[in-house]
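Recall that a protein's primary structure is simply its ordered list of amino acids. Everything else, from secondary elements to tertiary packing, is in principle encoded there. The following example makes that idea concrete.
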Amino acid sequence: MLLKYIDLYLNLEQYPSELATPFGFKTRYICNFLERRIRPLKYDTDGFSKICVQGNRVPEQSCPIVSETAAVPSVAFDEERYRVLENDEIHEFLIAMLVEGLEKCARHHRIPLAQMQDAIEDFRSRGYTNEWVHRKKLLRGTGLRAYLLCSLDIEKFTLTLRLERNGRTVFEEPILQTKPDETIFAYRFKDVVLNENTVIVTGKFGDPTFTLDIGTLE
């Protein structure tokens, strides 16, 4: 089974949803970064496609495989410290939990730990930012090159459309913002197409997410 997903969350039996739900949103920016690094590895694990690091009051020593597809290493969650974190302290707090969980998982199962540790160091070197180009496409007959640019942070996901002509940016604006969770934003965009004089950003099911009349461009 190929490893594709990384999650960091709180045990809902130990923590109220008022705490656990926002915490889960805050972790996706780093987990998504790791997922996009490990998927190209096509790493074959022994019976799970997810590593779900679980924050607990009293962590277990084992790393069980649950629901047949998820390895679940548990780590200590310092609720008192979490509630008083300031500014950018949240980054290293989450990284510490994640690294501890991945290392525990590696003691029980075969995973690409070194590659994930390298990805975390790269994440640090980028200033804890998660940005990527989802689509780059030439819109033939218009001289326009379109880019769908993604940015995921603790608070939100942002999709930006950039249009260039002859190397010059003629349009660049955020066209979608959601909470930072792939289940909310991932299906909202897939491609950029041209219909006569209209640039259309389409979703997974073909629905338009954004339209722009190219006649309005410089």
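Helices lie at 17-38, 79-83, 89-108, 113-125, 182-185. The first strand starts at residue 5 and ends at 10.
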